[in-house]
Every structure is written in structure tokens, then in C-alpha cells.
Amino acid sequence: AVKVIDFGVARLVRGSNGLPANDTATGELVGTLQAMSPEQVSATAAEIGTPTDVYALGLILYELLANRRAYDCHSESLEAVIKRIQEFNPPALNTLVPGISRDLSMIVATCLRKDSKERYQSAGDLAADLNRYLVGSPIRARDPSLIDSLRYWCKRNRLLMAGMFLLAGVLMASVVTITLFALRAEKSRVAAIKERNRVSGMLDFFLDAFRASSPELQGPDTQLRDVLEPAIEDAEVAFASDPRSLAEVQLTLGQTLSQLECPRCRKCG
Question: Which GO terms label this protein's molecular function in UniProt (predicted)?
Fold first, then answer.
């Protein structure tokens, strides 16, 4: 007996001239929507070939095993059904039907891949994998890789992805800005601490010098210049690693000694 299976619409793989032949114009949607592959509803005739028939066989297997169609086209608009066929996978058979093995579910899912290159490339390849399943041999069908899953998810959620990239860009810019401000603030804080310590060191040096000039240590006849002159040499040791502080201390000591040497200041010295 001859059995006719409706795959949506018949198409010649090769015409009489050896070139691909189509009975419908490019971009025209013709056929039973429930039996059409993603490339058929996209009207990309160049992608239609033997894997398209494999997709149709997968739909038939799905309906036979699940007792329901992979896609319900009655309660949605044409645009919604086309989007579903192009972007969404039907529920896995082993999650719908008790007793369906993961391997058999994977074989049918491979037939229904959105990318025709990821399906079985011929009915013979599908039959061979079904035979492996029946005899208990390892099948060739495999789960989509993580990269493939991410690619399909991004394709289905273009607007969401654009928003996520925009948000990520804003967050990265904010993090960079906050980090720069924090680094500058930390740099300023460290610089302020260093300057405070430097000034404190000079004050301590002068206080030590003045304490050394007290009458209790130097006697009642000690003059200020007798203390400041040795302090110039002491500063070279105390500030050997800080040329800036050394220069400021020696300048201050020198100016003080110069004032003590002037006639008007000698009375005070």
C-alpha cells in the first residue's frame, strides 16, 4: 500500500535542468504550518533541503509518541506561531510521557533542531540512530552545547540582551568611575599623612634643639646661636632621607642665625 505523508508542501530537490526547483515564489508562505520547519516559515528557500524532511519526520515521531503536536497553531496568531517555530523548542518527550527514555527523546529533539546543520542530514542517518537505540548501542544524538543554548537564548531575547549589555556597560562605567575616585581619594589621603608626618618631624627636631638650649642643660650663659649652629649639622643626619625637609630646616636655621648676627638682634641674642 502507498502511504502519503504531508510534510507541509512538496518541493523538488532538483529540477529537470539540475537546478533547485520551487513551485512558490521566494518569501511566499505555503504549506501546513504545523509541519513546517524554521527555514520554511522563514521563506529562505536556499536553506531548504533534506534536513527539512528530517525535521518533518521528527514532528511525526513527536506526535506519535506524545499523542500531541509539537506546536499548537490554533490558539495563536500566524506571527506568534512562526516565532514559536523559529525560536522555541517543544517540551522534551521524556518530560511529557512516562517511560520515554532520554535517548529516544534526544533522537527526536535532534530532528527538531532549529539549525538544519545540527539535525540528522538524511532520513538514513535518522534510521541508523533509531536502530542503535533499538539494539541498545550508544546513539549519536547529543544535547546542544552550552554555547549553542546561549546562542539560541540570545536570539530569542534580543531586546533583553540589548538591555543587559547596556546595563552592564553602565555598571562597568560606574565601577571604573568609583574606583578612580577612590584611588584619587586614597592617594590624597596618603599624601596628606606623609605631609603631616614630615611637618611633625621638623617640629620635633626644632623642639629638641630648643630643649637642648635650656639653662638646666647648657648653663646660664648659653646663647641661642650656640645651639642653632650644631643643629645645622644634626639636621643633615636627621633628614638624610628627606631632602625637602632638610632644605627647609637648614633654611630656617640659617635665617635665624643671620638675624642673630645683625647689630639690632645681638642685644636679644
Answer: ATP binding; protein serine/threonine kinase activity
